[in-house]
């Protein structure tokens, strides 16, 4: 297939035929389904586009997408051309691959997709040299960044780290964000197992930054990371020992944060962000630590303004009455959503909740801290991984005092019902990234289209 023979629509359809672990989970709680050999061979056949890139590689349970986006924007502020690869998307597949905040064009996506398919299968029914939707998208991203000659490529892992497709890269800096329990069907049930998989992105001779970690984290997590770093002979930079932060302004419109150095010298750095989530504070501290590591510190005299959208990450999709979209899907993320709502929101919550079947449903709803006056709509999602609404209803009735809980066949019908309750209340869609786009479409005009 020649590069010009594939349209964007046809490219998306072909991608959907690949194995997609985002929607179809692998069988059994292990990593036996994953390896990197075939993907390395594919990149070899594509001319090793990764060799043209200076890479910053991120892994973690919570905050890696936010940290990656803020870091990419901060690098762009300093006059650098920056590629950003993150997942999953909310509205459009092309959200995952951006240069200086701009999505890859449909034409470029289709052309690069055709090039990758030519290598991977040599046509329909051929023996694929790699197997998955995510690997194909990763190859497209690397080709796009190489062709655009980016100064830096900020790359977020898809799942785990050690066996993630992005771990074929040779980065110049790695970042571990907050680590917790998630993806246990693949990464294991114990915190130290998950930490071992995430720490698999560490490389010999490559500095690693550890972002602020959640309170109560088992000591075994730190021990696993330290042992991995020691075995590679690299030093770890702990963000929590570099900075403390102060939030001086906070509303649905965003927040203002000042980072104060914990050492004997240095000046505070103030940032203004459009996203009001409390999760941006530890992410921003990690970003400033990374800039220090790269020798790219700004003057600090004027506040740095971050404007790039954090799609699906405490995103204010509508202001009056408020509609918030957040792809939180683990208890750690739910707790941050709850903490943010407590600071900036008043009144009953209208919740549209959908989750994947393997997630910690009970831990998630407990972390949200729902009250008796809150209402919950449970839509069915058309994905094999999605938890059934009746399953979530049972968890909610056992774990929360909320009494107004109903099941719906679609996201649109769930959102319509929520609009009949507490007209001025806050509506929150959370628990997964996969129902945020239909939630937006049902509530807003002029929504972005894929």
Textual characterization of the structure:
There is one protein chain. The chain has 450 residues and is α/β, with parallel strands linked by helices. It is built from 14 helices and 18 strands. The strands form three sheets. An eight-stranded mixed sheet has the order 4-3-2-5-1-6-7-8, sandwiched between helices. Strands 13-14-18-15-16-17 form a six-stranded mixed sheet, sandwiched between helices. Helix 11 links the parallel strand 15 and strand 16. The longest helix has 16 residues.
Q: So what's the overall shape?
A: globular
The CATH homologous superfamily name of the largest domain equals Mur-like, catalytic domain
Distance between the termini: 24 Å
Main-sheet strand order equals 4-3-2-5-1-6-7-8
Helicity, in percent?
Answer: 25-40%
Low-confidence stretches: 123-128, 446-450
Please outline the major beta sheet. 8 strands, mixed
Task: Provide the structure class.
Answer: alpha/beta
Radius of gyration: 21 Å
| Number of DSSP strand runs | 18
CATH class membership of the largest domain: Alpha Beta
The proportion of strand residues reads 15-25%
Please give the CATH architecture of the largest domain: 3-Layer(aba) Sandwich
Distinct helical segment count: 14
Chain-averaged pLDDT: 89
CATH fold type of the largest domain? UDP-N-acetylmuramoyl-L-alanine:D-glutamate ligase
Q: How many domains would you count in the coordinates? A: 2
